[in-house]
Write a structure and sequence with these properties.
Chain A is of the alpha/beta class. In chain A, 45% of the residues lie in helices and 12% in strands. A 7-stranded mixed sheet of chain A has the order 2-8-7-6-5-3-4, with helices on both faces. In chain A, strands 10-14-13 form a 3-stranded antiparallel sheet. The longest helix of chain A is centred in the C-terminal third of the chain and has 27 residues. Chains A, B: Homodimer.
């Protein structure tokens, strides 16, 4: 029997990943048409990929220090020419030193590393975590991964034993979680974030979702928190984090803290789950010592934006050593994370310091990216606040806005006639008429009866935002 | 309930991956002790990692052209200084051209690419396949992957629907296959390779294994062939490949051709499954048109040896478009393969040509690696042929030798007393006494009643081979 959609793994068939779904595929077709000069029939000149947090596809330039180091790691022969590098090519001495240090630890970036990552890079991450959190970190519990996605995949594969295994995921969520759970045939236990409270966590809602799942016979094992939020852009308060930790501790749940946007914070301050947990442990003299925490980070986001390099790591706290042995075994089957990505993780957690030759340029580039993101977030938020039927929380963090849209009944009927959800219908028309690709809220999950879309605020300029505003007005007029 | 080895995913617990298992972990501990200067109690000065095909961890130097291009991809600012690159740093003009071309297609290597890979790189691979095979190749059926391992993982995830789904795997096999099937809870259908015929495939054995599995109610879906062989080092004849294709066509099995060692061939010629299939289709006027073939390749092996970069691809032939849509969806959940690895795939399939400025150096380096591998393979084979109770087929391809060892009954008893298989016991003693890490045959599977180990022939020098010979004699004497 030949393979068909009906006899292959139906878990793959059921998995949904809207960020790279039909809209994204269509936007790539438009882009290819325009590139071939066959876009004369299209009402736009450019495709704006606001569907995915892909900074360097848009106007974000890589940080010079990172790439200078990477170029030397790729071709260590260049280090034979320090004079040329420094004087003719403008490579500062700290770039050379960092590359030499990494090469001394890695050997060749073309060689497999240890499966959990290059030991010295793990040590370097542990030191960063100590500086960030003010608490000790142990390199032996750090695992390098091919981006945070691969880390999430590893953790879910180990935690989920069978169909009954439940993982609490926020709604809206980044669809990596629901897709991975579909592939594993485990049970997502959704809990709604509170849009009226800037998309924060609400403990009553979480408890209620947990109790309901338990009553349904689900073996709830873990709660996922994405902070800062994707797609919501929320940045959690310390009080919210404490409440989640207390709840997870009471119910013996693993906490999976997806903290890949930890430097993308515009309002308040990022609180890591690790630092809050350690603080609570200290305050209570051991009450929370049994809690299992996995926290993830990545080079893909922040001001680094090196997602094409697929680098990241996760740190485990409080896990049973025999469980960790199985995590190690799982990652070893895919051998190791890309080594150049591992090196960029080391650079991310140890960037140039004040006084270093590369510091000034690094700081200037970093700040420019940060300020650019904040300015665009604010500008788009302003534009949304003037659109009929659109409401959007103030941007607090990450790279996304997730406005609510209220559509006329006639638009909802037209969507149904096309076999689409109303938000998907809206986003499809937006793409076809403006070239702007955003993701419908249904791709992330949303409270029943609400509609949203997610847009990144990475794309340069404001013209595309203007075209959203114009499209929206016409759409509302058409279906009024 | 906290996570424990007993309540986590038991499929992970059951999976075995000996190449990075206990012996490998112990060898890394020895290496770390020696590096810290705490090796005084050890009877050796160096650890030789002959357990894994990791060329650049040993003496294999990266190919200069590849790394010069990669350094420019990482830091395109260097391209602003063509004079310095060419005159001071010795970058030939074709390196600059290649980097510019790749950057024009990729944008930034720090950006996510399309999930199935950069379109222009897929086109480039298709053209390579056309040159290699003499038959058309279609870029839209090519998928870039993070090494071949990730490609195998994708394909098995889609092909295996449930417990009953059976995948025929060679014995001995590369344990990625058995481990992935354990994770998927699908059924491995082992078929023995014929050690007496240089580890070739034997059609009667394959048919017999297939019929037995069918009789047991297994829904056999696919046959995996590793050619050249891992761990066997065999290189299949065209007749063997034809027989497998004919069998798979008759039984409607997907053929998964793991061809990552396609350039590591010392005896005869590499025949790709694609070229043999197309030839058979042509000869028979369509008899084999329905066959589904997935063939995999990688930058990790061959003379390239860039495994740390995690680059590879697979090509699909004859797959249903809706099945391919699900393969696309599966790969999209992990976003994309590392982009710098994708670029190195492009370089691998389009190396410098005669007349290009980089050709002479490339050719010299490539040939030196090839000849070095062949010489070491031959030297180790010679050494093995003088060891009591050891028999080893002539090295034909890949990077491995897989000798049979016959151990005295007292050694077998001593192993049992330690709770180990005899070959594992042997390999553990070898590591402890010589620092040479090889993998016991039981990690790959072996015909009942036989014992083997796998060694790479990547490590430089012959001293370590001498220490295996010496160890073996002492071991045999001790347990005689």
């Amino acid at each position: 029997m030949r393979l068909s959609k009906d006899n292959i793994n139906q878990r793959v068939r059921r998995a949904e990943y809207a960020v790279r779904g039909e809209l994204a595929v269509k936007s790539e077709e438009f882009r290819a048409r325009l590139a071939r000069g066959h876009g004369s029939g299209l009402p736009f000149k450019h495709v704006i990929s606001a569907n995915i947090g892909n900074p360097q596809q848009l106007d974000q330039k890589p940080l010079t220090f990172f790439r200078q180091v990477a170029s030397l790691l790729e071709n260590p022969d260049l280090l034979q020419h320090p004079h040329v590098l420094v004087n003719s090519l403008g490579y500062p001495p700290d770039v050379l030193e960092r590359a030499k240090w990494l090469l001394s630890k890695v050997g060749s970036v073309g060689a497999y590393s240890a499966s959990s990552g290059v030991p010295a890079i793990k040590e370097s991450i542990a030191k960063f975590l100590e500086r960030r959190d003010g608490f000790p970190a142990d390199a032996s519990h750090i695992y390098l991964s091919a981006g945070a996605s691969s880390g999430v995949n590893t953790l879910l594969n180990v935690i989920c034993a069978d169909k009954k295994s439940g993982i609490m995921i926020p709604i809206p969520q980044y669809p990596l979680y629901s897709a991975s759970l579909a592939l594993l045939d485990a049970t997502p236990v959704p809990y709604n974030l509170d849009e009226s409270k800037a998309w924060g966590t609400d403990l009553d809602t979480i408890c209620h979702a947990y109790q309901k799942a338990k009553a349904d016979g689900v073996d709830v094992r873990c709660i996922v928190i994405i902070n800062p939020g994707n797609p919501t852009g929320a940045s959690l308060s310390e009080a919210d984090i404490r409440a989640v930790i207390d709840f997870a501790s009471r119910e013996n749940l693993v906490v999976m803290a997806d903290e890949v946007y930890q430097t993308n914070v515009f309002v308040g301050k990022f609180h890591s789950f690790k630092s809050v947990l350690r603080t609570m442990q200290k305050e209570t003299g051991g009450k929370y010592d049994a809690l299992e925490l996995a926290s993830l980070h990545s080079i893909s986001k922040g001001m680094v934006g090196e997602c094409g390099h697929r680098g990241g790591y996760f740190e485990l706290v409080g896990f049973d050593p025999q469980v960790e042995a199985n995590i190690y075994k799982f990652v070893s089957i895919m051998l190791c994370a890309p080594v150049i990505g591992q090196c960029l993780v080391q650079v991310m957690v140890n960037p140039p310091e004040p006084g270093d030759p590369s510091y000034e340029l690094y700081n200037r580039e970093y700040t420019a990216v940060y300020e650019g993101l904040r300015e665009r977030a604010t500008a788009i938020h302003d534009a949304f606040s003037h659109m009929e039927g659109v409401e959007c929380n103030q941007p607090q963090g990450s790279m996304y806005l997730f406005p609510t849209i209220r559509l006329p009944q006639r638009a909802i009927d037209a969507a149904a006639a096309e076999g689409r959800s109303p938000d998907e219908f809206y986003c499809m028309r937006l793409l076809e008429q403006t070239g702007v690709c955003v993701v419908p809220g249904s791709g992330f999950g949303q409270a029943q009866g609400t509609l949203h879309f997610r847009t990144t605020f990475l794309a340069p300029g404001t013209e595309w935002v203007g075209s959203i505003v114009k499209f929206h007005k016409e759409f509302m007029d058409k279906y009024r």
